User: Fold Protease PrsW from Bacillus gobiensis.
Amino acid sequence: MVAIISAGIAPGIALLLYFYLKDQYDTEPIHIVIRMFILGVLLVFPIMFIQYVLEQENVVTNKLLLSFLSSGLLEEFFKWFLLMVGIFQHVEFDDHYDGIVYGTSISLGFATLENILFLVGHGLEYAFTRALLPVSSHALFGVIMGFYIGKLKFSEKKARRKWLILSLGLPVILHGFYDYILLSLENWLYLMLPFMFFLWWFSLHKAKQARTIKAIPSEKF
Assistant:
């Protein structure tokens, strides 16, 4: 059990540290990052319950709905909502890259507990694949969400609707597409590899872009 928990936690912590230490201007207070991580962990339980109800009540009847509604929209919306409520107006959110730090924190909290539960149920032999795919993808969805939340916070008021839509809509679409590949394609690996390559490229590009943007005073949202 110790080995399973360690294997379940390790990739999430490693990815969180990677993005956390890339904050070159002013590293975020570790207690806030940990708090957002824990919120992500706690988010697993209500989401699992809602997904179970949707399945039992036959609300989700096909793989497309399962991918984009039950997984993509449900999971990304709650992460986005907690970021908007829990950190968007916080005084420590004072730089564009901070959105990425907090976005990856909550996403990786969610992914870490989900990963542990999967490994407990299916075995340690899946640890490497889980680290490369579900845990990494959650981290990258968090990067993208956090980038656009940063744009939302530090942009002029007239541009905020666009960033608000992208901060939720793009992670939902990418997450839904990720799940649809896994659920619908027999030879899913052939499409998953280029998709993950694109996801890494796009996320790292956005992270680099965020580090070069000088924050400007934002109006209240």
About this structure: Helices lie at 2-21, 30-56, 63-86, 98-122, 127-153, 160-184, 189-212.
